[in-house]
Amino acid sequence: MGVIRNQSFYNTIVTYVGFAIGAFNVLILFTHFLDDEYHGLVAFVLSTANIMMPLFALG
Fold first, then answer.
1. Structural domain harbouring 54
2. Contact predicate 9/1, CB 8 Å
3. Per the confidence metrics, is the pTM higher than 0.85?
4. How many CB atoms lie within 10 A of CB 30?
5. How far is it, in rounded angstroms, from Cα 48 to Cα 7?
6. How many domains are contained in the chain?
7. In Å, what is the CA distance from 53 to each residue of 12, 17, 24, 29, 47?
């Protein structure tokens, strides 16, 4: 059970770090480096990625 616990802990840390990087990217970087006309495009790309992600996970 030690291996499973270590892998679960590692997976949790990686998930939280990925979420933090994504939140920083959307909340800080997009607002500073993109003009107002690109916010709709970014929202569309992010929404499309969220819809396609489960489909790609199925294989």
1. 2-58
2. no
3. no
4. 15
5. 30
6. 1
7. 19, 19, 20, 23, 10
